[in-house]
Amino acid sequence: MGACSTAPITDSANSSTAQDNILRSGPQTAALEGPDVEPIADNPVPVLPVTVNSVGGGRVTVADASRIIAIDRSGTLANIVFSLGLGERVVARDRSTVIPEAGQLPLITDSGHSVNIEAVLAADPSVVLIDESVNPPGTIDQLRSAGITVVVFAKDRTIASTGPLITAVAGALGVPDQGRALAARTDAEIEAARASVPERARGSKMAFLYLRGERFKLLAGPGSGADDLIEAIGGVDAGTAAGLTSSFTTVDAEAMINADPAVILVMTQGAESVGGIDKVLQLPGLAQTDAGRNRRVVQMDQAEILTFGPDTGRVLAALAEAIYV
């Protein structure tokens, strides 16, 4: 496995005594409170046609939003559509869209997030919302060649991009007023979550580990989205602080020890893939970190933790509640 070898980064804020005063010890689960989706409006009527920007494809005119499919690796686009109050118009879902409201819809992506073109065509969408990360290559061109209206969005998912993405999706579906209202609500929830973190709690090193079985361990770094999440709840991204230059880097025991996080964040499904939280704590190098010694592992569902959609503020609040005393 590859590794990043840098000297441990230590400071007074990360001393054992200070951590004990501000961080919860032992495994924690962060979970959203309230409904899975809280629509900003009740089935608003789109005002169409509209012509909007499409990433990599100039301008696209959307004339019909009666049958919507939204596709991306994180389920963010579909979450936005449902949160706009247009969920009844969604006719199929990607595998990352796991909200109960979409549970009975046919799947159009496989376990590797690749789009099944035939399944999309069978759903007969009037518009497809998709982002640049879609697989396999050529998917967007195939859909357009089949006569489907396709609007492409940027693949970046950060706190700063959340509001603009919401308004862009709403604009493409002809409900701009609802988009502005949803973005404003989301921004307010994000700021409230930021403000809830006590000043004394800021500065603890936290690492996001992406796990898929014991042999596939990636430490998040700059540009991963996890760094943005960690900073928003008052932490310091351990991967970035340790000198990582890629968004996700394969790590070994030495790299984990050198990063020395006080808290480990994981997706619940990632933890399950190695046998649960106890097995996460047995991964090479973790026992020698501050997080490992204090069993500070926080898990959160993969459909929530890095989606950066309308639930972002609630995600931040749930993580802060799970991390801080």
TrEMBL record:
PANTHER family: HEMIN-BINDING PERIPLASMIC PROTEIN HMUT, VITAMIN B12-BINDING PROTEIN. Signal peptide: none annotated. It comes from Williamsia marianensis. InterPro entries: ABC_Transporter_SBP, ABC_transptr_periplasmic_BD. Residues 1-21 are annotated as: Disordered. This is ABC transporter substrate-binding protein. Belongs to the bacterial solute-binding protein 8 family. It holds the Pfam family Peripla_BP_2.
